Amino acid sequence: MEQIKVEVKKFLDERDWNSQVPSDVSKSISIESAELLEKFQWENHSVKEINENKELRDEIVSELADVFIYSAQMALILDCDINKIVIEKLNKQRIKYPAEAVKGEYGSKKYLEIKKKHRQL
Known about the structure:
With 121 residues, the chain is mainly alpha-helical. It is built from seven helices and no strands.
């Protein structure tokens, strides 16, 4: 992940695009996420369909890359260690959603009960 930050920083430095503020980058993350979601707007593509359709796969991967690039830019702006913040978040999620309680139950009633309980805290 650090190599991604290095490459994003290099890209921004080469263009003198280092003055963006967190709110602008946050908006860009959301916009790019919406563009990724748009690829699924009227379709429920399976993994197999995506992998068999090179054009569709390339479009999805390109939008996913945009989300990662802007996310790395946000990490640069906020001086975040990407590895650290992802691992910390996964550890919190492990506590919130213990494997023994939700294994194979993503989106199930049990999962949604846990999610609702944490939102009320």
